[in-house]
Amino acid sequence: MSNLYLIRHGQASFGEENYDRLSPTGVVQAEIVARQWVNIGRKIDAIYMGSMKRQVDTADALVCAYRDKQMLVPEIIIDAAFDEYDSGSVFEAQLPGMIAEDPSISEKLPDIFSNRRVFQLLFQEAMNRWVSGDYDVPGVTTWCDFKQRVQNGMQGVMQTQGAKKTLAVFTSGGPISVVVQEALDLTDQMAMAQSWQVMNASVTWFKYNARGIALAGFNDIGHLELENDKDLLTYR
């Protein structure tokens, strides 16, 4: 069987104008992943990454670490199939309906980026509405379309790379949850709930062959925990 590692990007810049870049903590997280893989001498046959800057920069940390130790750097492929969904557009599209159902939400909006708990509660509600498919908005990507995009991308990776390979895909929580969903046959709602557990710079491990894909390890953050710094354990 082949080994497939999905690495979530390091912490992005929550609440800032340009979210799609690593925070200082995210930079350190990416370097820790890279250092661990160098230390264990993990050989990789191909590296895939989404096109988002936070994904690319997390992957670049690994590439640089391998090159610094004169380890083989495999083929690197950018594939937008592994980009995160446009959460901003989804949230904005769902918000009017949420406010119509609960007008008190309007009072919470000024605190949305300064209060992480408020943000997470509203964000989860919006994403759950989106996943249900009952509140699709014209011009906004549906959950089904997003899921199909990720599944097509993953099928392309597995078919292209074939058997007895070790692959790394640098991506985000949404795509990781879609692959977990396929491996465990989860419902859409369960897949979205699982996505909230995917931590920054975590590693989720799958095995696959021509018969399918299986989950071997989920949301591993042991490399971060070894640093004995709780500030490195982040979700957003």
Detailed description of the structure:
This protein has 236 residues and is α/β, with parallel strands linked by helices. The chain folds into two domains: 2-84 and 144-232, Phosphoglycerate mutase-like (Rossmann fold, 3-Layer(aba) Sandwich), CATH 3.40.50; 87-132, no CATH class. It contains nine helices and six strands. The chain has helices at residues 24-40, 53-68, 87-101, 105-108, 116-132, 143-161, 173-184, 188-195, 222-225, and strands at 2-8, 46-49, 75-78, 166-171, 203-209, 212-220. A six-stranded mixed β-sheet has the order 3-2-4-1-5-6. Strand 5 (203-209) and strand 6 (212-220) form a beta hairpin. Helix 1 crosses helix 2 and helix 6 (143-161) crosses helix 7. The longest helix is centred in the middle third of the chain and has 19 residues, at 143-161. It is globular and about 60 Å long. The relative contact order is 0.20.
Could you say which overall geometry the principal axes of the C-alpha atoms support?
globular
| Total beta-strand segments | 6
CATH level 1 name of the largest domain: Alpha Beta
Could you name the CATH topology of the largest domain? Rossmann fold
Class based on secondary structure composition and strand pairing: alpha/beta
Give the strand content.
Answer: 15-25%
Spatial sequence of strands, sheet with the most strands: 3-2-4-1-5-6
- What are the low-pLDDT stretches, counting only 5+ consecutive residues below 50? none
Number of domains: 2
Helix and strand run: EHEHEHHHHEHHEEH
CATH architecture of the largest domain: 3-Layer(aba) Sandwich
What is the CATH homology-level superfamily of the largest domain? Phosphoglycerate mutase-like
Distance between the termini: 33 Å
Radius of gyration: 18 Å
Mean pLDDT: 94
Number of helices: 9
**Amount of helix:** 40-55%
Q: Report on the biggest sheet.
A: 6 strands, mixed
